[in-house]
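Design job #97: recover the sequence.
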């Protein structure tokens, strides 16, 4: 993964995670205590970054334009 792509993917994953955590209670969903804080080094964090990187690649970076 290219450096800039990695930075963008982690930023998107972090934003998604934080937004998800904030909105979850409004939808009656209680998130897991052990994943409430985004950890880019955890299996969950690595998966989220990988998913975001794939989305960015598919969109050729235009997702952020």
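Job complete. Output follows.
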């Amino acid at each position: 993964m290219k450096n800039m792509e990695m930075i963008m993917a982690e930023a998107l994953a972090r934003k998604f995670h934080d937004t998800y955590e904030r909105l979850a209670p409004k939808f009656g969903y209680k998130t897991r205590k052990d994943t409430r804080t985004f950890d880019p080094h955890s299996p969950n964090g690595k998966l989220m970054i990988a998913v975001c990187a794939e989305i960015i690649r598919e969109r050729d970076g235009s997702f952020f334009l």
